[in-house]
Amino acid sequence: MKSAMFHGKEDLRIEDVAEPTPGPGQVKLRNAFNGICGSDLHIYYSPETAGLDFEHPHPLTGTTLPQILGHEFAGTVVELGEGVTDVKVGDRAAVYPMLHCGECVACRNGRPAACRKLGSLGASADGGGMSEYVAVDAGQLHLLPAGVDLSMGALVEPMAVAWHAVAQSRVPQGASALIAGAGPIGIGTWFALKARGVDQVLISEPSAERREIVSALGASVVDPVSGDLPAAVAELTAGDGVHVAFDAAGAGPAFTSGLAALRPGGRLVMVALHERPIEFLPTQLMMGETEIVGSVGYQPEEFDAVIAAMARGLYDTTGWVQEVSLDKVVDAIHALRTGAGAKILLRVP
Ligand SMILES: [Zn+2]
Ligand SMILES: [Zn+2]
């Protein structure tokens, strides 16, 4: 089968490898689509800063390089391993890719995504989504109902990241929000806020192309560079400031402008990786009694919440999702690195 095999920094090859055999409790999935994530770019261009140590066997899975990439994927069950009874051949599913130790302080306290040995299919385990087939535990499948197709299924994972960020914000219905960044996670945050009944939402995004895409979806957008973000926030909230802000951009100004946009008691959610430290004055938090909270990954039940919202037709992929074939993965990664705005789904042959 064809797989995108990661050998090391800027070395990803389409290779022919043996098809996996599902072990006890596993299924063999024929992958249909796999999304390219920002974290895949981090792994490809700077594995040393991607939060993963590829020099040593992974502490949870024992995996070393080379390995198949891809953790945002959906496909169809083609074979059942021993003892699998709750899934059948032909079922279509999105795959919950994260692997947790189940024992550390994060796992013991209901924060599996913050597991100290966190692993993931397609990043630190055998098998991933950039491949014709993968063997996964049946418990990692989240079945797709009729009406949610497999390309939408590959978007469940990034949309669940955004869904979890909105849960972390604890935003009440009818409140106001600012999202910095209109990449896939920013867009997903906008949809997840809508699902919660939060309609007073402003997106700040410096790229004209991305602004055009989100405003076509119906979002209010502002250019934080040449526009006046504080004035736009004041106009949205009658001068009060937003209840919650999201840094889905991973840039210093996204963080500082998000904090500055909050009303007293407001909350900033960090849902982006930052490559560099930034400077800010903590007094800002004190004077406004504001909070900053991190958000990483998602809970399994948030996968189901996203799938249910997809079945209700909440997610419109117009303009921000593109499909290319698996062979073109390296070109697609290069294009994303140079700032192409869309979510790219790899179509698996
Ligand atoms: Zn991802
Ligand atoms: Zn753990």
Lay out the secondary structure.
Layout (H helix, E strand, L loop, with lengths): L1 E7 L2 E6 L9 E10 L2 H8 L21 E2 L3 E9 L11 E4 L2 E2 L5 H4 L10 E2 L12 E5 L3 E3 L6 H4 L2 H14 L6 E5 L3 H12 L4 E5 L3 H10 L2 E3 L6 H8 L5 E6 L4 H10 E9 L12 H6 L2 E4 L5 H12 L9 E5 L3 H9 L5 E5 L2
Parallel strand pairs: 11-12, 11-14, 12-13, 14-15, 15-16, 17-18
Antiparallel strand pairs: 1-2, 1-4, 3-5, 3-9, 3-18, 5-6, 6-10, 7-8
Helix pairs in contact: 4-5, 4-10
The structure holds zinc ion (2 copies).
One zinc ion binds next to helix 2.
Q: Ligands bound here?
A: zinc ion
CATH superfamily of the largest domain: Medium-chain alcohol dehydrogenases, catalytic domain
Form type:
globular
Please report the total strand number as a whole number.
Answer: 18
CATH T-level topology of the largest domain: Quinone Oxidoreductase, Chain A, domain 1
From the alpha carbons, calculate the radius of gyration and give it in angstroms. Answer: 20 Å
